[in-house]
């Protein structure tokens, strides 16, 4: 059985592009994400993150 369907995979397989952008459909998918999409989400989060992106200071890297 395939009870844990990745929400992003589900949308990709069942919705049109326009539907995917519709907030009404965003809630439809399960919250489970496959490892692939979990990684993708993490990367999107990091990219979209705070408006003012933290610019690493050279001295910080040295401290770490
Ligand atoms: Zn997925």
Give the mean pLDDT: 77
Biggest sheet statistics: none
CA-to-CA gap between the ends?
A: 46 Å
Helix percentage range: 55-70%
Cα shape: elongated
Oligomeric state, counting identical vs distinct chains:
single chain
Please report the number of helical segments: 5
Identify low-pLDDT runs. Answer: none
Beta content: under 5%
Mind telling me the C-alpha Rg?
Answer: 17 Å
- Domain tally: 1
Please tally the β strands and state the result: 0
Q: Can you describe what's shown?
A:
- With about 60 residues, the chain is an all-alpha fold.
- It has one domain.
- Helix content is about 60%, strand content about 0%.
- It has helices at about 5-15, 15-20, 25, 35-50, 60-64.
- The protein is elongated and about 50 Å long.
- The chain starts with 6 loop residues before the first helix and ends with a helix.
- Bound molecules: zinc ion.
- Zinc ion binds near residues 6, 9, 33, 36 and 37.
Topology, pairings included?
Elements: H1 7-14, H2 17-21, H3 23-26, H4 35-48, H5 58-63
The structure holds zinc ion.
Zinc ion (ZN) binds next to α1 and α4.
Keywords:
single chain; 64 residues; mainly alpha; binds zinc ion
Provide a short characterization of the protein structure.
The chain has helices at residues 7-14, 17-21, 23-26, 35-48, 58-63. The chain is mostly helical and 64 residues long.
